[in-house]
Every structure is written in C-alpha cells, then in structure tokens.
C-alpha cells in the first residue's frame, strides 16, 4: 500500500486518503474484513500521531520553561544591578560638596563634582564606608601631592593624557573617555536589549532558530551583568584593602617639611633600608613625626619611588636611595652589585645615657612593654628604670646574684638567681611565687607560648613551670650547664649549653634538633624576626641557624667571649661581649655598628620600645644607646 511504503510517518489526512485510493488486495473482500483491517491500521497511525504530538508538547513545555527561567534570571540580575547602583549613588550623594584630602602630608581640597566625573579607586574607597576622614575632615591617601593635583586637573578638564601622569591614572583606575567607550563597546558586543518583557514576547513569536538566537542573547546579557556586578564587588574589596593598608600611617619631618606615608610603603625599600626600620613600630614617633635631616624635595621623590616603583624616578634619586639603603632597580637592571658608596650605617657612640645605682655587676637587662627597663645585678637586686635614668622601684628577695629577668604577659616579672630559685614579682616589689626545684644556679628564664615559664640551670636541666610554682616537665639532654633558654614562636623551646650545643625541644621534653658547630660553651641564644635562631658564647663568634640545624651565617668581629645576643625589630641583631663592646649586625654577617663606652664586659643587651639599645656591664652601669637611624652619621 502507498501509505505503508512511505518511509516517513504519514499525516492523518494522508492516511485517510490512502484508505480511499488503495487497490484491492483480493477480488472479493468481505466488507467486515476490509473495515476491520483499515480500522486497525488507522488506530495504529492515530496512536503514533497522538504520542508524537504529546512528546512535542512535553518538549515544548520544557523548552518554554527553560526560556522563561533564563528570562527571569536576567530580570533578577537587572534588579540586583539596579539596586547596587542605587546604593552606590546614595552613598556618593551623601558626601559633602567639598572633599578634603591629606595626600602624603599635603592638604588638598576639591569638589565632589570633579571627583565623580570618572569612576575611580577614589570613588570605590568612598563608597566602601571604611575610608574615614580624620578629625579635621581630611581623607588620607599615600600618594605624591603634585601628581594627585594633576589627576584632579585631568578629571576637571579632560583632554590629552600626559605621559607623566599616565601611571597615576592607572593607579587610580581612571580610564580616558575614548578608551572607556571602546571597552564598553567590546563588553556589549551583540548584547540584547535589557527590557526583558520585549524579549519574552519575542521568544514566543519567533521560530525555533530565531528563538535560539534570542536565548543566546539573553545568556550573553546575563553574563555581562554578572561580570559588571562581580567587577564592582572586586573593586570594592580592593579599595577596602587599600584603605586598611593606609591606616598604618607614619609621620616624617624632613627639615620641617611634613610628610605622611604608610608602613607598607616604607617596607618596599627592603629589610636593609633604614626607612623600613621605621615601619617596625618600635621607635616612638614624636608629635612632629620622625626627624629626617635630608633635602625635602629629594625625599619626596624617594617616597614617590617607593609608592610607584618607577625606574624613571629612581634615576633621579639614586644617591638618596643609596643613602637610605634602599635597593633601587637601576643596579638590578644593569646587573650591578651594590655600589661601593652605598651607605653603611654606623652609630654615633657618644649618644649614650648611663644609669647608675647597682652596687655590683649588671648581669641582665630586659625591655618592658611599658617602656621601662628592668635590670638584675650581682648585688641581688632588681631595679626598674624609666628611660630617662630614674629608678622607680627596687625588688629584693633573692639571696644571691640575679642572673636573668623576663616580663610575663600578665605584666609581672620572673627572675632567676644563683640561689637556685625562680621568683615571680608584681611591679610594686611584692613576690607572688617562688619556684624551687633546681639543684644549682638558675641562669636563664623565658616565657613560653602557653603562658608557662621555662628555666635553665647549671644543674644541666631545663624545667617548665606553671605560675603557681608547679614544675610540669624536667628536660634532660644537655651534658653541661644550660646558660640560655628561649621560647620560640612555633611553640617549641630552644636551649644553649656549656656542652657547646643548641637544642630545640617540644614542651613534653622531646628533643627535636641539636645544633653542633660552636667550639666553646653557648652562653646566649635568641629567636630572630625571620624565625631563625642566633647563638653566641665562649668563642668570639655568633652563628645563625635554621630550625633544622643548618648554619646559615657565622658572624666574626668580637675579640672575646660573647655573653648576650638579641634580635632587633629592624631585622638586625645585637651582641654584648667581654671585649667591652656592643655590636650591631646584619643577618648576612656584616657588622653594622660597634658601640664602645663600657669599661667592663657587656653581660646583657636588649632593645627598648623606642628602638634604642640597653646594655648592662661588669662596670656596674647600665647604658642606653641612641640606636635611631636619623641620629647617626
């Protein structure tokens, strides 16, 4: 039959036509037989037809639902974007008409109209809500004031972008109008009309291919709006991060010219830079800022270089960069090593205060968090001093020499003595606890990360104590007196001994590492700011170690035994020796300064909260050295 030979599914009309025109199969068919056969065939085709129609309807319903979902997503994104934009506009509207900025210490005012002519980092910082004006209403920003004014001039008048401010415009995310239009066109492409209702109506009216094209446009428009919203959120996060970085401000007084910058900017000169040392926060900043006796205009360029990293600026101030010990890109670019005339900072050793009051050798000094100094002597006394040399308290109670002092996080002091005891004191002189258990002199004490105390003794042990006097652990392992103990930032404990080794311990007494290399007893150890350990002792050398026991540097310069070593906040370290000097070292092993003035062995050194160095000596005096980068020659 014609209908049966057709390879395609016939329409209902074709089926009926086939029934009327089909040839007879047999010469004398039964009317009932003919009707039943045709009826069954028709039913079969109808069943197939309805099933196919049902599948088409179901597929279309799914397709329709998918299209409507895409449309609703786009509509929701538009609402979110409009809401975000409205919130931003309300925040900007709430700003005063006149905006005041403190740009690197220079006060500049402009109008809100000028500032908002072009979206920028400044608008994002203002929108973030975290950028707060100071008491005078000025918003601080760590940039060059002259360049900032040029940026404002560009925002106000537009025109051709000058090369000298292109980097500044880039920093502030300011895009010239022509470039901004090109970027918008690239982002838009074939973007769909954002009116969603028209799109849905179009989807319902067009054929399948047109519908697919419209769906693609809807997806593209949705992605574009998502990109705009995500970029806006990321910009706000970047602006908030920049605002947070600017909260750590540093004031500088350069021959009367006031500058303000941030710790992050000062650190960009490298760890060896003198300016980076100001970012440590250990030196007290005067009301007028840190004094710097240099040309103010040249210094402004130094700050501009630190902020921007511009090689062009570095060319103009290479001598100033050398003076401040700042690693500039010129030498790196040319493959040069450090210039031979690069500044090596040395101390004016005449700038020292001498504190007298002890009747015997001063074996230990400690810098307290409140700016005072604690000293312990062989006269059995602990004295607390103001930095101006006034003794404010004397703690007595030990029966013999005071060999060590440490300040605890609760504000108390812990002291160790040759009377074999550790005592804990309030600052008014009251002894609150006595820790007994060692069988020989206590030579060193330190506070651990868990708030407990560790002590090292001539009895060759280290003991760990709670503040109520309970000994929780006794550590054995050294074969000589334990001269020095130091709590490490990783929660472990280090000790130096007369057996010429340094050991690192877990607080349960397990030895983690043993450092071998000294040829004489190790009398002092300290943790440096980079996490490494420095040790010094009966020989005239210092060694710097990684925690796995590798010696990275050997410092040679003292001419007699080293009794004390401490890390400094600027990344350097200081040592005191029987050769009657204090030396300041770079961690690469070079000696940066020698402080001379004591007439006896230097038994202890410590860095004070203002960056100066205190030293105690067998000449019965405590000296305070003005270790400040701008009081040096």
Considering the chains and any ligands shown, give keywords for the structure.
633 residues, alpha+beta, Potassium Channel Kv1.1, Chain A, four-stranded antiparallel β-sheet, 16 helices, disordered N terminus, disordered C terminus, repeat, WD40_rpt
Describe it for me?
With 633 residues, the protein is an alpha+beta fold. It has four domains: 2-70, no CATH class; 95-174, Potassium Channel Kv1.1, Chain A (2-Layer Sandwich), CATH 3.30.710.10; 249-334, Potassium Channel Kv1.1, Chain A; 361-631, YVTN repeat-like/Quinoprotein amine dehydrogenase (Methylamine Dehydrogenase, Chain H, 7 Propeller). The chain is 33% helix and 28% strand. It has 16 helices and 34 strands. A four-stranded antiparallel beta sheet has the order 7-34-33-32, with no helix packed on it. The N and C termini lie far apart (114 Å). Residues 1-33, 188-206, 330-351 and 628-633 have low confidence and may be disordered.
Indicate the overall shape.
Answer: extended
Radius of gyration: 40 Å
The overall average pLDDT, rounded, is 80
What's the CATH topology label of the largest domain?
Methylamine Dehydrogenase, Chain H
Strand content: 25-35%
CATH class of the largest domain: Mainly Beta
Protein name: WD-40 repeat-containing protein
GO molecular function: ubiquitin binding
Organism: Planoprotostelium fungivorum
Pfam families: BTB_2, WD40
């Amino acid at each position: 039959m014609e209908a049966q030979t057709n390879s395609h599914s016939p329409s209902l009309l074709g089926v009926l036509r086939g029934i009327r025109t089909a040839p007879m199969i047999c010469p004398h068919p039964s009317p009932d037989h003919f009707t039943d056969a045709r009826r069954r065939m028709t039913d079969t085709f109808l069943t197939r037809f309805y099933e196919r129609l049902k599948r088409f309807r179901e597929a279309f319903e799914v397709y329709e639902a998918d299209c409507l979902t895409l449309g609703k997503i786009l509509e929701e994104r538009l609402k979110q974007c409009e809401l975000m934009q409205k919130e931003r506009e309300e925040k900007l509207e709430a700003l005063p008409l006149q905006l005041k900025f403190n740009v690197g210490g220079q006060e500049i005012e402009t109008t809100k109209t000028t500032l908002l002519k072009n979206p920028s980092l400044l608008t994002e910082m203002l929108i973030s809500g975290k950028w707060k004006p100071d008491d005078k209403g000025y918003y601080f920003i760590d940039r060059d004031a002259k360049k900032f004014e040029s940026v404002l001039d560009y925002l106000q008048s537009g025109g051709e972008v000058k090369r000298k401010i292109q980097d500044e415009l880039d920093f502030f995310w300011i895009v010239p109008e022509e470039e901004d239009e090109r970027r918008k066109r690239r982002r838009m492409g074939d973007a769909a009309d954002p009116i969603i209702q028209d799109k849905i109506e179009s989807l319902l009216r067009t054929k399948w291919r047109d519908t697919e094209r419209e769906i693609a446009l809807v997806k593209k428009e949705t992605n574009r709006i998502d990109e705009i919203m995500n970029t806006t959120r990321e910009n706000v996060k970047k602006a908030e991060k920049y605002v947070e970085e600017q909260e750590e401000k540093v004031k500088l007084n350069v021959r009367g010219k006031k500058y303000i910058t941030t710790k992050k900017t000062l650190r960009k000169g490298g760890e060896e830079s003198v300016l980076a040392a100001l970012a440590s926060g250990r030196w007290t900043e005067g009301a007028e800022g840190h004094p710097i006796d240099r040309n103010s205009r040249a210094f402004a360029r130094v700050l501009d270089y630190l902020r921007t990293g511009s090689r062009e600026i570095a060319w103009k101030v290479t001598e100033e960069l050398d003076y401040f010990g700042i690693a500039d890109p010129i030498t790196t670019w040319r493959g040069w090593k450090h210039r031979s005339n690069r500044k090596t900072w040395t101390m004016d050793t005449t700038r020292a205060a001498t504190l007298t009051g002890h009747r015997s050798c001063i074996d230990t000094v400690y810098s307290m968090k409140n700016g005072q100094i604690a000293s312990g002597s062989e006269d059995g006394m602990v004295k607390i001093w103001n930095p101006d040399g006034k003794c404010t308290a004397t703690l007595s109670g030990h029966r013999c020499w005071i060999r060590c002092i440490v300040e605890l996080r609760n504000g108390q002091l812990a002291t160790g003595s040759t009377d074999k005891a550790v005592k804990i004191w309030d600052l008014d002189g009251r002894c609150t606890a006595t820790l007994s258990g060692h069988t020989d002199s206590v030579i060193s004490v330190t506070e651990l990360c868990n708030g407990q105390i560790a002590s090292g003794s001539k009895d060759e042990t280290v003991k760990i104590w709670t503040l109520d006097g309970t000994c929780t652990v006794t550590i054995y392992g050294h074969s000589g007196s334990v001269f020095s103990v130091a709590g490490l930032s990783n929660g472990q404990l280090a000790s130096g001994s007369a057996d010429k080794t340094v050991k690192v311990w877990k607080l349960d007494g397990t030895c983690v590492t043993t450092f071998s290399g000294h040829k004489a007893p190790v009398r002092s150890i300290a943790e440096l700011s980079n996490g490494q350990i420095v040790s010094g002792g009966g020989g005239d050398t210092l060694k710097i170690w990684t925690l796995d026991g590798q010696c990275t540097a050997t410092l040679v310069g003292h001419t007699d035994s080293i009794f004390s070593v401490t890390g400094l906040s600027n990344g350097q370290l200081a040592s005191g020796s029987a050769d009657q000097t204090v030396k300041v070292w770079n961690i690469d092993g070079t000696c940066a300064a020698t402080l001379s003035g004591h007439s006896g062995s230097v038994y202890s050194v410590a860095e004070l909260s203002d960056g100066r160095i205190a030293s105690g000596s067998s000449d019965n005096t405590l000296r305070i050295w003005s270790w400040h980068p701008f009081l040096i020659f």
